[in-house]
Structures are given as structure tokens and as C-alpha cells.
């Protein structure tokens, strides 16, 4: 795809605007992370580690470096890593996707999706502004409003670290 179509509907007419899709991959950092993985593959391995384990280490280090230097998003780097590991038969497809059957993984995914929705739509800000508007007329009320906002929004947004990661990923 080279572009996306965005439709805006007004009262009488429909405006169609062509938007350019920008890839979320930075080529130079991605090449650096791949080179690090290839370098680890060719380093002499300790005798106790099997060859597949050494290759697994190389792919995981490449994924970690790609995420650390901002080459791709975490999800894309993980998907590329799973593809490389299964395509090269370092691990089986069943092994690669076995952890996705755990309910804890899906709980984390759902919590992240919910918190990204609250953050990206501005629902959290609107809730906070309305609470501050209701009880934040004095200094003590503003303090209580902030605590109440943290209690209410803390149930939906997993943590401050996750909020920062979501802002970083969405940019």
C-alpha cells in the first residue's frame, strides 16, 4: 500500500482525501540490529550451549537491540523474530506460539489495548477534567480531585511506564 483513503462525511457531501502511509520502520537502526544478530551467530559459542540455543540468543539480542534503538515497534520486532525462528527451523511453530495460549498473556494484551484506547481517544483527560471541574474549586478540592482521578484511571491504565511506552509507540 502506498496510501490510505480517508473519508470525511459532512451534512451534504463526502470528501475523500488520500493519505500517505508512513512505514513505522527505521532502516538504519534495523540494519544495525540485524548485523548484531548475525555477528552473534558467527561468534564462537560455549561448548555447553547447543547450536539452536546460540541462534536463539542471536535472534533475541537482535530483537532487544531493535527495540532499544527504536528500529521498530515491540510488536513488529517480536513478529519478525518469531518468523525468523520458525522459518529457519530453530524452533517449531508449536513452540513459538505455545505461550499465546496462556490467559495471562491475553490479559496483558487486553489491558494494553484498553489503556491505549483511553489514552488515544482522550477519555482519560476528559474524565480528569470533569472531576477537577466538579470538586477542584479550592486547593484542597484540587488535591482530592487528583487522587480521585488516579483511583479511577488507575483501574484502566496499567501503569505510568505503560503509558509512556504507548505514547512512544503511537508517535
Topology:
Elements: E1 3-9, E2 14-20, H1 27-42, H2 51-68, H3 74-87, H4 93-96, H5 103-121, H6 123-135, H7 139-154, H8 160-170
Antiparallel strand pairs: 1-2
Helix pairs in contact: 1-2, 2-3, 5-8, 6-7
Alpha plus pi helix count: 8
Q: How do the SSEs run, as a string of H and E?
A: EEHHHHHHHH
Low-confidence stretches: none
End-to-end distance = 20 Å
Instruction: Estimate the mean pLDDT confidence.
Output: 81
Helix fraction, binned, reads 55-70%
Oligomer status? single chain
Specify Rg, calculated over alpha carbons: 23 Å
Quantity of strands, as a count = 2
Structural class: mainly alpha
Strand order across the largest sheet: 1-2
Short summary of the structure?
The protein is mainly α. Helices cover 65% and strands 8% of the residues.
Summarize the structure in words.
The chain is mostly helical. 65% of the residues lie in helices and 8% in strands. It is built from eight helices and two strands. The chain has a two-stranded antiparallel ribbon with strand order 1-2. It is elongated, with a radius of gyration of 23 Å. It starts with a strand and ends with a helix. The mean pLDDT is 81.
Q: What tags apply to this protein structure?
A:
171 residues, mainly alpha, two-stranded antiparallel ribbon
Amino acid at each position: 500500500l502506498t496510501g490510505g483513503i480517508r473519508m470525511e462525511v459532512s451534512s451534504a457531501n463526502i470528501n475523500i482525501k488520500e493519505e500517505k502511509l508512513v512505514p513505522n520502520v527505521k532502516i538504519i537502526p534495523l540494519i544495525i540490529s540485524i548485523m548484531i544478530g548475525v555477528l552473534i551467530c558467527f561468534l564462537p559459542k560455549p561448548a555447553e550451549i547447543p547450536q539452536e540455543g546460540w541462534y536463539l540468543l542471536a535472534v533475541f539480542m537482535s530483537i532487544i537491540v531493535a527495540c532499544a534503538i527504536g528500529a521498530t515497534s515491540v510488536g513488529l520486532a517480536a513478529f519478525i523474530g518469531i518468523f525468523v525462528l520458525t522459518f529457519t527451523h530453530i524452533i517449531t511453530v508449536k513452540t513459538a506460539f505455545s505461550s499465546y495460549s496462556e490467559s495471562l498473556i491475553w490479559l496483558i494484551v487486553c489491558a494494553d489495548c484498553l489503556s491505549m484506547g483511553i489514552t488515544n481517544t482522550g477519555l482519560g483527560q476528559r474524565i480528569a477534567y470533569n472531576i477537577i471541574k466538579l470538586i477542584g474549586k479550592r486547593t484542597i478540592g484540587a488535591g482530592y480531585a487528583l487522587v480521585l482521578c488516579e483511583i479511577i484511571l488507575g483501574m484502566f491504565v496499567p501503569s505510568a511506564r505503560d503509558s509512556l511506552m504507548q505514547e512512544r509507540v503511537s508517535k
